[in-house]
Amino acid sequence: MPAAAPITGPVLSVRDLRVQFPTRRGVLTALDGVSFDIAPGEVLGVVGESGAGKSMTGAAIIGLLEPPGRIAGGEIRLQGERIDTLPQDRLRRIRGRQIGAIFQDPLTTLNPLYTVGRQLIETMQAHLGLSDREARQRAIGWLEMVGIPAAAQRVDSYPHEFSGGMRQRVVISLALCAEPILVVADEPTTALDVSIQAQIIALLKRLAREKGTAMMLVTHDMGVIAETADRVAVMYAGRVAEIGPVRAVVKAPKHPYSAGLMASIPPLDRKVAHLSGIEGAMPRLSAIPPGCAFNPRCPHVFDRCRHERPELIETGSTRAACWLYDPASEKQAPELLRHG
Amino acid sequence: MAEGREAPRPAATVMLAVEDLARHFDVSRPLLQRLLAGEGRRSLKAVDGVSFEIPRGTTLSLVGESGCGKSTVARLVVGLYPPSRGGIRFDGLPLEQARADAAQRRRMQMIFQDPYASLNPRWRVLDIIAEPIRAFGLVSGAAAQRARVAELLTQVGLSPLDGEKFPHEFSGGQRQRISIARALSSHPEFLVCDEPTSALDVSVQAQILNLMKDLQARLGLTYLFISHNLAVVRQVSDQIGVMYLGRLVELAEAETLFTAPRHPYTRALMEAIPDLEMTGRQRIPVGGEVPSPIDPPPGCPFHPRCPLVADRCRREMPLLLPPRSQVGTVVACHAVEEGRDPPPAPAGGDQRIGTTATAL
Question: Which residues, in sequence order, are bridge partners of residue A102?
């Protein structure tokens, strides 16, 4: 493999990303001004409820947006090079070689007609130019590394011969075998049972650390984020509501949406009389309210939120897109939010 | 409203009693292939000898990983599958008898997991909710039916005007409210809820769980609640049964299960839940995976993954027994019976205070 060039600056840099879907009733904006960076060896967790745009952000980065969706603005840079404007064939080479992808359902990711070994070997040969013997040796090595017992025999098995958890291990080895610099993992543990989830999370985390791979981990499971991510971006209605170090966002969320989200999670260690939720539901893309997208559900809403869209504002160690943190606003964040 | 449900109910009568319930599915290959391969019939024991009782007005939850048989129990209880063995009594009546009688049948209803699949997209909400009312002939006259539907919609936190809309005009949480309104329309006393919040976002899940608790308090409903989420189960249950490969491995009062889990599998499940407190505590994952229910391991089905495994576990199936010095729990584990297990520690014990589980 080529010696990794000393990386300065982020592996992935997303600036003001905007994704739109033209429909008969007008253009829907699914992602609106999404910006973040991921440093080498860093795990960025992207959380949010269904429809927040977290998976779409991942799809835009790997260049697999479902048509008619298209990138309508902003830029995506991989190690400084713009990838959102590349032609499909160039992008295809980067995908797989430099960007690995892990999706929720391991069955649809793997080709049922090929043995897992063949899929690994093909991937490595396509990107790394290895000989047959070398590729096979490495395929077995990868299966061992992701914890598949008797890898030397299992390399010749077909995907259906593996259980769900084992299949997801195969998918992980497939995403990592070309030694990408960035891995986009979209709900990698959601289809798995809790007892298997823990194994897979531990594995992903170890591999990212060992290989210095940057990882974007998309999930709706805050627990997975808390255990795995270094930083977290909370998304709402196609925008980043809050971004910051995992500890700050989980323990002392600043944006009223992040705070509501954290408070909605039922506690395991006690029974509560009344669970706190967030009233209402996320708006449809065709009906995103003006100003702050969260304003109709926000317990702290004031006039400015209904008219002016907030940008990310520095507050403590995180940045939150909320007018409560703008010193110029007529209303300021209550103590509870400010100090968690 | 929902508080104070922990208090024991005086002279509770049993709403649902399940005794040695089993359901086996025939998964044999076609006859010709069997003959050619010289193999016999094979059966999948989805549920194999489950017993429990739900006192009126309380909630019993079944938890476990996929394939443990919890949804099959739900389906057996409402009569969607006939049992292969064992009996179900609904308010004292054998289930077949209760099912045959419309007056009894309307007393039990089911809420399904996926509110996108369980509502007919071509029907207006009004008709969806009124269907049980019409089927059981509970209210006659279109105006009276409308009034009843409006009342039900209000009861689940929707507007009476929503009756004119179609399901696609609602979000997932609102659809689940419609499902609940439909279930309530026949004045049931017993609801089977199969993962009612698993398809919902966490902020919406809280709304639905609160609604279900409020309705239980107001209408005195009895719930059989199926879920894979232990934190959700803790919020709604009076009793909890933990299932593994078609069997109950532990059945306990809700608080007891969380403060003193006994079965190694129950402990492993609680241990496996990601930690939001970020203590940096390394989770110890349960090794291995759930074995195939077609070919379960001999003896205790959990023995290949169990840290406390001994010779006896590989040979002999453990029975559900109360452990020494503990009331309110039965556990199917040789190690617990022999006192070989480490002393019970609460889930989210000292080093995990405030632990929260987490699926959004």
Answer: A185
Q: Are residues B180 and B302 in the same domain?
A: no
- State the DSSP code for A219: -
The nearest CA of chain B is from the CA of A131 a distance in Å of 34
Selected residue with higher pLDDT from A338 and B215: B215
Domain that holds residue B138: 50-237
Of A321, A243, A258, which Cα lies nearest the Cα of A36?
A243
- ipTM given for this complex: 0.79
Q: What is the pLDDT of residues B296-347, one digit of tens each?
A: 889 999 999 999 999 999 999 999 998 887 788 999 999 999 988 888 766 5
A251 touching chain B per CB within 8 A: yes
| pLDDT score of B113 | 87
Tell me whether residue B62 is in a domain. yes
Q: Which one, of A46, A27, A24, lies nearest residue A37 by Cα?
A: A46
| CATH code of B75's domain | 3.40.50.300
Q: CA–CA separation, A217 vs A103, rounded Å?
A: 10
Q: Report the SS3 class of residue A31.
A: strand
Are A195 and B286 an interchain contact pair (Cβ–Cβ within 8 Å)? yes
Residues B191 and B292 in one domain: no
Same domain for B299 and B172, yes or no, is: no
Whether residue B101 lies inside any domain: the answer is: yes
B62 and B117 belong to one structural domain? yes
Per-window interface: A 109-128 vs B, CB < 8 A: none
Of B39, B17, B64, nearest to B190 by C-alpha is B17
Who contacts B235 (Cβ-Cβ below 8 Å, separation ≥6)?
Answer: A266, A271, A272, A275, B209, B213
SS3 (DSSP) at B225: strand
* Structural domains in chain B (count): 2
Residue B261: helix, strand or coil by DSSP? coil
Contact by Cβ (8 Å): B235, B223:
no
Contact flag B230-A227 (C-beta cutoff 8 Å): no
Average pLDDT value for residue range B172-197: 94
B16 lies in some domain:
no
Mean pLDDT throughout B45-61?
A: 95
Specify whether B175 is located in the same domain as B313: no
Among A19-28, A208-217, A330-339, B65-74, name the one with the lowest average pLDDT.
A330-339
Cβ contact B91:B42 at 8 Å: no
